[in-house]
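Progress against Task 2.4 (sequence-to-structure conversion) is shown through the following example record, which the project officer requested during the mid-term review.
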Amino acid sequence: MTINTQDVPVIAIDGPTASGKGTVAQRVAQHLGWAVLDSGALYRLTALACMQNGVADSDEAEAARIAAGLDVQFHNGAIWLGGHDVTAAIREEPVGVFASRIAAFGMVRQALLERQRAFRRLPGLVADGRDMGTVVFPNAPLKIFLVADVAARAERRCKQLKEKGFSANLSSLMEDLQARDERDRTRSNAPLVPAPDAIIIDSSNLTIEETVNAVLDHWSKIGA
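Structure tokens generated for the chain above:
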């Protein structure tokens, strides 16, 4: 029997940088036994490939060409680009800043759209990003928009970077997050906005476990 991918359940989790959506998505997916899509990783991979090939963050056409031809593998929690393990490299701040800039390009977003939708397979998918509920999976039965105040997000990101051995400055991170938020909200292509039917969860004062439980509670309430 052929399965219509549109019938595969999706929980879309969108939100700004460092709102915790990636960790929440991973844990929700683990609880449900579903696949997970870290859409931000695809943009970071594109950014890293551009940087490795000397492509400027203003070159939309070349960035889109690289996005369309990414040699990417996701395996056992590791991310490979062109046969090299780049799991740590794509999380570095310069890569994140570059990714935020090229993510505003319509040609880049279009090049990655079908790659993202291909992750939708049984038994279900938890997808995190900035336009999962508005553009990539607009018919997802549950859409979460995860927010947190910028100070809380900066502290989280600072802690994450230091735990991974990277240097981090709290005030610089806060300025960077505010700049990224502005770019994401005001871009003409797939701006960072909650879908009309999204449930907004403010995680500023919630633990990861509390946030995960809130998402799972909403999933239970819709009768899934």
